Amino acid sequence: TLAPSLAPVTSAPTAALVNLPTLLATVTPTAILEDPSTFQNQALNWMLNNDVLPYDNVPQVEILERYAVVVMDFALHDGESRVANNNLFLPACGWPGVTCMDVVDSNISRITQINWARMNLNGVLPTEVAVLEDLVTLDLAENDIEGTL
User: Fold this and answer.
1) Please, are residues 114 and 91 in contact by the beta-carbon 8 Å criterion?
2) 80-106: buried (b, 16+ CB within 10 Å) or exposed (e) per residue?
3) What is the mean pLDDT of the segment spanning 116-127?
């Protein structure tokens, strides 16, 4: 008989996690994703190392939308994730202030509203917000935010 091992059990990264940087490079240049000083790199590392979402079962569009919201979270909270870190087990549609709508006849939910008004946010709105193609309402009132849509 084999003696039990005290070594931690680690599993190989899933195909979705291995391919995550390639997928995110479709919306953010690779040089920015790889630069540790960027919010995009922080979001990528958070998704690779902290996020518990089973990416293998999530449509790519939802992964990209999750990434966009995580980048916004880091960029507007001085490099600290407040929304994502407190809601690891939820899809982005379940995060505070994020509203989604299910796409008819599919297994996909799309972000349609973000209401982060009066959350003491500051910084520059990242360009990744453009990934949120079905976003109808972005309420960032009474914060200190720069940037254009």
Assistant:
1) no
2) ebbbbeebeeebbbebeebbbeeeeee
3) 94
Average pLDDT, the chain: 86
Count Cα neighbours of 146 within 13 Å in the Cβ-side half-sphere: 2
pTM of the predicted model as reported, rounded to 2 decimal places: 0.85
Neighbours of 48 (CB within 10 A): 14
| DSSP letter string, 22-91 | HHHTTTS-HHHHH-TTSHHHHHHHHHHHT----GGGS-HHHHHHHHHHHHHHHHHBTT--STTGGGTTS-
Q: How confident is the model at residue 15 (pLDDT cuts 50, 70, 90)?
A: low
| Residue for token pair 């914060």 | 143
* pLDDT value at residue 13: 52
The continuous run of DSSP H or E covering 99 comes out as strand 98-102
Between residues 135 and 10, which one has the greater pLDDT?
135
The answer to whether residues 92 and 66 touch, using CB atoms and an 8 Å cutoff, is yes
